[in-house]
Amino acid sequence: MTLPQSLQQAASRASEAQALLQDPAALRLGTKPQLRRYEVSSLLPDGAIAETRHIAPALPIFEDAFCAFTRGSMVDTCNGPIAVEDLLPGDMLITQDGSCQPLIWKGSTSLVPARADAKGRSHRLTSFMADSLGLQKPTSCVVAGPAARLLRMPPHMRVGTDRPPMLTLVEEFQDGMNIFETAPPTVVDLFHLCLPKHAVIRVGGLEFETYHPGPEALKLVSYAIKTLYLNLFSHIDTISGFGPLAYERNHAPERGDQP
Fold first, then answer.
1. Which whole-number Å values give the CA distances from 207 to 125, 155, 157, 186, in the listed order?
2. Minimal CA–CA distance to 64: which of 144, 166, 129, 135?
3. For residue 130, how far is the Cα from the chain centroid?
4. Strand, helix or coil at 87?
């Protein structure tokens, strides 16, 4: 049996990545970077689904690819709303412009939001109560991860009425009443979704972006980190494979942290 080229490339990168976990730069620091397990489901060119598990550093460049939606988040598809954990690569998701795109990649990880990592970073969630952003926005309580962005401007960031909406991190919408920070002390499953083109989808009645690392995400990272990162995505070879951003991001610096 001949493996699809995309899987051959991923396998080649995986074998190299195992050696690169012992990055010389990290070893010189005398402390090993914290590692996390990431799970990936990918759509192959022949329509089959590949499921893989990865071990990679707990750095924002990796975590942002997995930490947008919590278990139970309802995603609008051509077959009606489906919980994010039940989505399969190949399912058709409805985008903000009314068209449909196939889900080609779903990533998930598990973490404890209340627990800070070795560098003091936490992974606190944002809860949107029903109707907190307008009628049926959301339709019921939606809990989003730290990497989620909404196609909306929070009041304190609005400069003028003629400015188009921008993709904004959910933490900027917290008002302490209807939209608030939450940090469960137990394990939470988090997910993110990738389409052939960067787009906005509806989750629980709110417009969230699909995954895109940003054009400058790998600009400052080491070769080891870049190799580990690209190994997560069998459908691309370089960062340019994600294509352009569908909408401008609002005060969202790229977080390609080096170990």
1. 17, 17, 18, 27
2. 144
3. 23
4. coil
Alpha-helix runs per DSSP H in the chain: 5-20, 24-28, 60-63, 223-230
Sort 74 into a burial class: Cβ within 10 Å, 0-12 / 13-18 / 19+: buried
3-state secondary structure of 233: coil
Amino acid identity at 179:
I
Q: Which of 129, 141, 225, 124 is nearest to 178 (CA)?
A: 129
The residue type of 40 is V
Summarised one tens digit per residue, pLDDT across range 62-82 is 999 999 999 999 999 999 999
Q: What is the pLDDT of residues 47-63, one digit of tens each?
A: 999 999 999 999 999 99
Cis before 60? omega within 30 = no
User: Hunting for tokens 């070879």 — which residue is that?
Assistant: 237
pTM of the model: 0.85
CB-CB contact of 205 with 139 (8 Å): yes
Tally of CB atoms within 10 A around 253: 8
> How far, in Å, are 65, 103, 146, 167 from residue 173 at the CA level?
21, 27, 12, 12
